[in-house]
User: Fold these one by one.
Assistant:
Number 1:
Amino acid sequence: MAKDPTTTKKNAKKHEENIGITVKKSEDVAEWYQQVCLRGELAEYAPVKGCMIIKPNGYAIWEGIQKFFDAIIKQHKVKNVYFPLFIPESFFKKEAQHAQGFSPEVAWIANKEDEYDKERLAIRPTSETIMYDAFSRWIRSWRDLPVKINQWCNVVRWETEATKLFLRSREFLWQEGHCAYETKEEAEEETLAYLQEYKRVCEELLAFPVIAGRKTDKEKFAGAVYTTTVEALMPDGKALQCGTSHLLSQGFAKSFGISFLGRNEQQQMPWQISWGISTRLIGATVLMHSDDSGLILPPRVAPVKAMIVPIIFEESKKAVVERCYDVADVLKNAGINVEVDAREEYSSGWKYNQYEMLGVPLRIEIGPKDLEKDQVVLVRRDTRKKDFVKVKDLKESVEKTLEQMHHDLFSKAKKFLDENVVSVKKFDELVKAVEEKKLAKALWCGATECEEKIKDKTAGVNARVLPFEDNKSKPHGECVLCGKDAMNVVVFGRSY
Amino acid sequence: MAKDPTTTKKNAKKHEENIGITVKKSEDVAEWYQQVCLRGELAEYAPVKGCMIIKPNGYAIWEGIQKFFDAIIKQHKVKNVYFPLFIPESFFKKEAQHAQGFSPEVAWIANKEDEYDKERLAIRPTSETIMYDAFSRWIRSWRDLPVKINQWCNVVRWETEATKLFLRSREFLWQEGHCAYETKEEAEEETLAYLQEYKRVCEELLAFPVIAGRKTDKEKFAGAVYTTTVEALMPDGKALQCGTSHLLSQGFAKSFGISFLGRNEQQQMPWQISWGISTRLIGATVLMHSDDSGLILPPRVAPVKAMIVPIIFEESKKAVVERCYDVADVLKNAGINVEVDAREEYSSGWKYNQYEMLGVPLRIEIGPKDLEKDQVVLVRRDTRKKDFVKVKDLKESVEKTLEQMHHDLFSKAKKFLDENVVSVKKFDELVKAVEEKKLAKALWCGATECEEKIKDKTAGVNARVLPFEDNKSKPHGECVLCGKDAMNVVVFGRSY
């Protein structure tokens, strides 16, 4: 007799262990997000407060981001390096703004001070200082420029607010690029070039749109002349900074004594920039696309593109499972990474739920009837749309469906962003927009005082970005708060 | 008039800046090694004592090792993860031997104890404890096994001896693999499997042979039942541990409360192993192959396989440089990474010296006469052998020469190893062999006391490895020190 394991008692029990997400995204994003991360097996809280363990499913996304972005920076002739985790305290003191910005978050190592004339060692929160000390030795002549280096590493910032997996933790993984150029023009051009590449990571790999622009002086990187940013809007109406690129100009060069003999035979200082993205992008991706059944991974970054699940009946089991592995081989040979789950101790229903929770973009179901018809059932994770596909057309169909899914996820996120950035003229409109979980695009006089007042009056609404496309020229109109002549168009919002 | 830049005053001056290695490998290996690393631009000493800065040339080798080995472990179904840098002190205390072995080298973070009920946080020297705490949550049933994870990360061990670039530093990069299995047999099998893969890294990628075997109890990893190792012999007669794999057995499982419901419905403990290689392998590679002109990189790990240098005369400059880029395109399209150095401010002679110092495996010289004859001059870094190769045959010739170079480097290193491991029967022979900068293969009774006495009497000669191939059965003979019945064949030597 045909036995569908989903109906057996043993498997019904197993089925119960397959706990779903217990809150809706629309009701409690924070709790929903945590459950999606935990049950999607991306990460978990570490026994060390404020830290996280990145599990295989989560780390594979980071590997995807690394692979994509590392290839890009190598095209830009950036070389990877590794600098020490430890930074002498005196280095931080050299650039005053930088020191002031980072000191509250720095962790220090203990009991080793004596060896360093009582100098403490910081655990790197970022590597400008230790790298630029090296730059002062490396850069002698214009022939040594540009210097373009990057490192993929861990950094530590002793956050005091509650940890959020990927979004805020005391240690995280990132890349930090550091470049020095002969001219200001090159430095400014490249500040934008790497920001543009971050936009590509978000849009072309992770399938969500971002607003590119500048930060206000208040929000810029400690030690930068200006910071450019790509900001995304999360489903709860909060903005998330997804990548930043800083024009450091010559401030660090001055502090660290970096100079070179120019083409004009004059001693001069290089122009510097730095730029970074982090494991925070994993959090953004999860927040943006996932649903009440769990994780939805955008196909291009998903390590496993499709999970093949046999529908097992005793008499056709052997042939069906064989077909699953044959299909897997065909797809793997075409460079599409797929897996087969032919375990008999779990029902196919349990597996469907499980791989939805884990965010695998496609499911391929194969049962005895499909075998007869030389077809498979192809199910998209995001829409759950089912297609019956002939085995001979499968490779093409999988490729097409994955690409379509990428574009659909992006379009959906783009529509959400477009609908939730609203232009406001008056302060009360700004407040209302943010209350409605939107971003408010407003005119601003350029005074930090107004920016701070807005933040105070709203308990946290801040200037996220001065979008490039809205600030090509000085706007006409009045500051949303003080009514004075406006200098910039700013997107205000709450943020992570 | 034709102008060879090597003869101009400006370039003669440049030429002087191209400082060579000032000591011979045969005369002072330590100083020679340091110069090769520094002038080969692999790494430099950091301003933080005991730490190093890995520069682009050095990091590219690490990327080569990562790429090679990461593909291997993924075939073994190992998944990459990331665990926190910080480990609570109480975790170390759980496994007594482990704690004892690592505590002298642990660095702690300062001023954050209060938050942890006065518990200190260690900066990871290795991650067994924090990972196995997670294993105790992850492993419930035999269905959860095996667990096979790995992380590529930095570790800190507060060494008190003098730093040697790559070979000994307070922070280094490594991978640490950690697996848990249902049975002891699997665990033992896999301990050997990963060691075998380390042998492949050394031999197939880095072109030097190793002796695979077990460590003595005295030299094993703190917390392991036994440690297996691959040991290489360096040109100064010292052994270098290149990779280790540990059978941890059930000790950590017991300490961390890791257990699972077995197939027999009984609660039981998993069998664990861990395994690691580090940036030390870069040091081994440098020491092994390089010569008095600088670095020699084995071709398979060299990031740039060939440097193309135009011989520039004013009237043929354009055509020669064009040909260089054409040749580069042909090779790049064949997947061979090459570069062109067409800078006119440096002479070709200066460039030859420079790329020899940087260890680029092949040099391709192209001058006006070569252009006429549709040929290039192909020069091997190791032998300096010159070949005239027709442009149409270049791709094939480069591929063949690179492979030949790999095999020749390996053969040379293998011959050196074979000639410098000598079998000894008496203690004075052992002393003499080590004085002659060889490794001494001797019989040993198995008593730690004898091992320690040998170390004391020789000021540091230690048991490096019990080679598998010599220890397939109990040897016949007497311990090299005490004369009692021998249990093992041991390779003794000085070590890094």
Number 2:
Amino acid sequence: MLELRLVQGSLLKKVMEALKDLVTDANFDCSATGFSLQAMDSSHVALVALLLRSEGFEHYRCDRNLSMGMNLNNMSKMLKCAGNDDIITIKADDGSDTVTFMFESPTQDKIADFEMKLMDIDSEHLGIPEAEYHAIVRMPSSEFARICKDLSSIGDTVVISVTKEGVKFSTRGDIGTANIVCRQNSTVDKPEEATVIEMNEPVSLTFALRYMNSFTKATPLSNTVTISLSSELPVVVEYKIAEMGYVRFYLAPKIEEDEEETNP
Amino acid sequence: MLELRLVQGSLLKKVMEALKDLVTDANFDCSATGFSLQAMDSSHVALVALLLRSEGFEHYRCDRNLSMGMNLNNMSKMLKCAGNDDIITIKADDGSDTVTFMFESPTQDKIADFEMKLMDIDSEHLGIPEAEYHAIVRMPSSEFARICKDLSSIGDTVVISVTKEGVKFSTRGDIGTANIVCRQNSTVDKPEEATVIEMNEPVSLTFALRYMNSFTKATPLSNTVTISLSSELPVVVEYKIAEMGYVRFYLAPKIEEDEEETNP
Amino acid sequence: MLELRLVQGSLLKKVMEALKDLVTDANFDCSATGFSLQAMDSSHVALVALLLRSEGFEHYRCDRNLSMGMNLNNMSKMLKCAGNDDIITIKADDGSDTVTFMFESPTQDKIADFEMKLMDIDSEHLGIPEAEYHAIVRMPSSEFARICKDLSSIGDTVVISVTKEGVKFSTRGDIGTANIVCRQNSTVDKPEEATVIEMNEPVSLTFALRYMNSFTKATPLSNTVTISLSSELPVVVEYKIAEMGYVRFYLAPKIEEDEEETNP
């Protein structure tokens, strides 16, 4: 039997908004340690990993490990019916082919339960090794989202270049070129507005803006985003979920061959 | 001659928004007692009744009973041109084939008059007898609107079941089932947030959500909605218009034969 | 070499929003006196003139007169990437076929530069003589925008009639007629809310609402709009840009022959 009670139900709604455009169907894995998901996007280019640790739930009961295949679009439809202040409980009986989402209003005057059919989904869990990164950038998540959106109006790819001074986002397209530099500024009043760079060696990598823009759907989950870059590894774009876990997106860099030709 | 002056002009704008998606053309009836309308929706399934009593108008002159056929979409286009604080006057000369809507800004610096052609519309006025209902539910109108909208993302019909404890709204669809229970709670701080149930006997009826959602376009007219249910009668969904009258929607229940089959 | 630094960068964003739907490609002319543009709309019916005087820039360097052909849609895409509080600098080297827009955030922590290709555009500069107008109406720009939008839901053209008492905007269409009168009211508390009429002789002219609605895209630039009317001249719809200049739209009146026939 599974029963996970999350007082801050709006968090689960935000998680769904962050994932549903990227992932269609996925297995949610429940164990004693937490509620998690790992899935490739539908075009098999990006990887998403979600973790909500058991300590973050008001009540967390998971008698045995359980993998529940869900259609994220349908799950999102149901969770949208929860009020932003509602307490959400996820329930499943052993061996059942359904999962129930229960929404309780703060006053307990309105109780909703939505039962969704589960699916059988083939998936293999990839071990993602902890790695050393050449550079790690922490910056305001809204700033990162704005930059990805702005550059998309000019080009299709973004070059992210990190030096000690700052991080540069560049693109080029038919109408021209764009460069946006964010300087390291750890001395701002509010820590969540800082841009902080940890760098072992300079790095410059190219990514598809389409995926970056999908990742920024997770912006409401966290004030800051952490971008970990290494020339031999996929970039990790991480949104921490306060006191509970994270959503992480992995994307391999593009190999640019003929990009340089168009440079003057 | 007809001259109806309504200080709270925004009210007439809200009435049009409540009706125009449901009713295309209709006769507005003016008499000494008030300004009213009764019309079937365009698919002849739901009935709408509007009453604005003469006492609610600042000035109300109606020399003889008059029935004015109007296209509600065109009328809505004109009323949208009134400011929210404007005073609206409806004017018609005897025998004229037009009606004039006059909008005066609060400062009287801007005066608009919109003249609209009237139409000949065949209609018969149905006598709607006062009836006894098995159960009458009064609840916040925004809550009812939210529930109808939420359930529409899961299924096409809603089962409304009333017991002494509360009212339950249920639906089922391809992706699963949903049940939302609102408990009777007459002891809230603000009376307009109460859910109050008057019940003679339990009742459980099924309705098309499409129509319910249309009815909730009247939500801006009133903080509360009253739902009157009886197994042999159409449901009445009523939005009171403060000190003036009401908009009432009537809808026959669906006869459910094969609904039960899919129940486990 | 050209370098124009505008502290209030949002102003340039508003100018682009005002022009881009009307004008596709145009030459921006830079001289010691200011940054200006004159262009016909793409259907060659309306004329637009923009002036931003050099005094309004924090820094203004223009070594020699320069005409830069730009696609306004592309320019708008780039300027949309500037934050509303950003300082915008326009830069061009002598003989270069590109222009650079630099955006600096108020904290200087984010610096963006967008480089756009210039175009060769044939254009002739029309001398617009200063003229005497029969009537000049100054009114709140938001009120004018609202009236043009409202009348568009009824008809395609607007008759603007000015008398000493006020200005009347009229239209007619399939569903009826509309008249909106704004009275002269120079004694309001806030000068920008006044409607002020300077009149030598009464005037009544007809214009295409489609163009008037395009002109009102400039509404965010100024609280007031000035409409200058004369029976032999195009109307001038002017939005002043505080301490810098203006955007002016010119539109020839329609000759109405058969309009009167439909009058009773």
